[in-house]
Amino acid sequence: MLTKLGRLARISVRGVVQGVGFRPFIYRLAQDYDLKGWVRNTSGNVEIEVEGDEATVNRFLEDLEAKAPPMSRIENVEVALSSPKGYTEFQIGESLSREGQYQLVSPDIATCPDCKQEIFSSTDRRYGYAFTNCTNCGPRVTIIEDIPYDRPKTTMRSFKMCPRCQREYDDPLDRRFHAQPNACPECGPSLELVDSEGKPVEGKDVIKTASQLLKEGRILAVKGLGGFQLACDATSQAAVNSLRDRKRRLSKPLAVMMGTIEEIERHCLVSEAERKLLESPQAPIVLLSWKQGSDIARAIAPNLNYLGVMLPYTPLHHLLLKETALPLVMTSGNLSEEPIAKDNDEALRRLKGIADYFLLHNRDIYARYDDSVYMVEGGLPQALRRARGYAPYPIFLPFKSKPILACGAEDKNTFCLTRDEHAFLSQHIGDMENEETLEHFENTIGLYKKLFRVEPEIIAYDLHPEYLATKYALELGAKEGLKLIPVQHHHAHIVSCMVENNVKEPVIGVAFDGTGYGSDGTIWGGEFLLADWKGFRQVGHLEYVPLPGGAAAIKKPYRMALSYLYTLLGEDFSLEGLPLNGLKSAEAEIIKQQLRRKINSPLTSSAGRLFDAVSALIGVRGEIDYEAQAAIELEMLAADAVDKVEAYPFAIDEEGGIGVVKLGEVLGGVVQDFRSQTPAPIISLKFHHTMAEITAEMCQSIAKDTGIKQVALSGGVFQNRLLLKLTTAALKREGFSVLTHRLVPPNDGGVSLGQAVVANFNEEETVL
Length: 768
Known about the structure:
Blueprint: E1 8-16, H1 22-32, E2 36-41, E3 46-51, H2 54-66, E4 73-82, E5 90-92, H3 113-119, H4 163-170, E6 191-195, H5 206-215, E7 220-223, E8 228-233, H6 237-247, E9 256-257, H7 261-267, E10 268-269, H8 272-278, E11 285-290, E12 306-310, H9 315-324, E13 328-332, H10 344-350, E14 357-361, E15 373-377, E16 380-385, E17 395-406, E18 416-425, H11 435-451, E19 458-462, H12 468-480, E20 483-487, H13 489-500, E21 507-517, E22 523-531, E23 536-542, E24 545-546, H14 551-555, H15 557-569, H16 585-597, E25 603-604, H17 607-617, H18 629-637, E26 651-655, E27 658-662, H19 664-675, H20 680-706, E28 710-714, H21 721-733, E29 737-739, H22 751-760
Helix pairs in contact: 5-9, 13-22, 15-16, 15-17, 17-18, 19-20, 20-21
């Protein structure tokens, strides 16, 4: 703190300081200290001038940061001193738009305790009102069209405030001062319940009618903050099965919303860290250990030990959960692989045939946002899907970046725009498999470019030539004459982990995932890299095996099992007694021919495919209906309560200066254990221990050659809690410092961040 200040301080505050009650906070603080001057929003910051005696201005500056509103995030405060101007009062000035400047935008915020109390207080004018909000909660990024954040630049502009709401909005001492979505039943958005043909449903109380339908086992499409959600009774096996059939989501787990933390604790084990995450203003879905006695329908998460749970985060959700008194499935309003629906007409068109009824409202959603998904491992939260509540808050970079657009990967796509010290990692876009998702991708890029005033000079993209995101990048770069920089998939994974941990010096990167285009044209996925922000060198990998039938081997893990057996143990290896579910002898012969003739069988080192193969070999899952299902169910099976198991034997050979993990003994050991009737949970646990030991031994070998003792773990396989825990422990026992993800997903949702950082330090792809 400066020891001596003039009597007037001109202050610039940057960060998330708009739409979070920052100006009224400054106003009240100035009143408390009897300081004169003004405060205003601009496109780039909040500007303040205060004058008074030196000691008082000093205290004001201290409290500005120490007592800031809970949802604000102050990034930078600059103070310039000058002579007093003779202000006679303190005012809140009109917002000022400045060309080229940008402001951080607040994510949507879960309903605050004050607003929750109002909607359940029968004497309050907002009793039962589904759109109650204030400066401490409510929609933000999903309704903003441009900055500065003022009502005319949001989708609330069509709702003229009634006199009472206007008084709240104009009163700096009211918690709704300049709350842009401020409204009440008299002047604000309203609910409507319609059937699948769009015809209004009779009933005086929309919430009560909708709740009764849910209790009767009906499926409702509910318009939420960032799009529609599909809701049904989570305790009804019939309702859940019906939702699955209609949504074409056969087995992939569904999220559940419960009304209170106490109700969640009746169904799940909840640690203190998990409770804190559930009750946070971000209110994500959290993966919790599912209690055996729970009456939540098992069809919600078949064969899984974890349940994805969230608390209500809007007044509408609170009212529905209170009225139904049931846990509700609350899953994305879409058909499998499509973007979430956001507009009323769109929902009625796209969700017809899934939802029986539609709970609509007339506040438009500008930006689509799915729910965020988190888990807690080692007492710390880890993002698995970063969206509502977190995006578009940036990842802070420990350097000033060039303006870059990084287009991400194919699955779980996000993009990343960088400017200055900010990496604006988008919300979860989805799997880039159709035109609808590509359109969502393009529209969201346009919104982020506008909000954050970024005009990219460089475009970063994945090496895979068939990714839609890659094709988009190449077309845009050619059209606009921008510099194009390809970034290897697993290098991007490792750098994303490095940068969120603020580590620049080279690390040993362990990238385990399903697929990624390798620099040598093979399909990587079990990689050991020497990496920094600029370049990388592959120094090890899991043994290559063919991927028979390409994508067919991903959908049918028994194909991978055959590939490992025939490639590593010999073509004459007997399949007798092995539970390769779904495999017929004729198909086995075709797979042999594919492997022998190398037809449509690209080589892969994928750790994800190895997990699939083991899962199929011991009868856990031979065919999948969602990504990584076989590997996830293998993890669920592992008897992690067993104190001691021996890892399967393996070898590490050097081939052309690269360490190659030989897996024949691992597969042979799995088969031998199965044939000797070792319980499948023990086999799974042994295999997980083996993968941890492989990682530790390979890293030890690399460390001997390089002296590097820092390891970064990334890739979707490290969403496996057991593997992450065992691998981290094994590495730490050998004296390694271990970097893991917290802020961005370890899966492909984090790839775009790594791409952007690599591109910033490269004119072309480089190696260490």
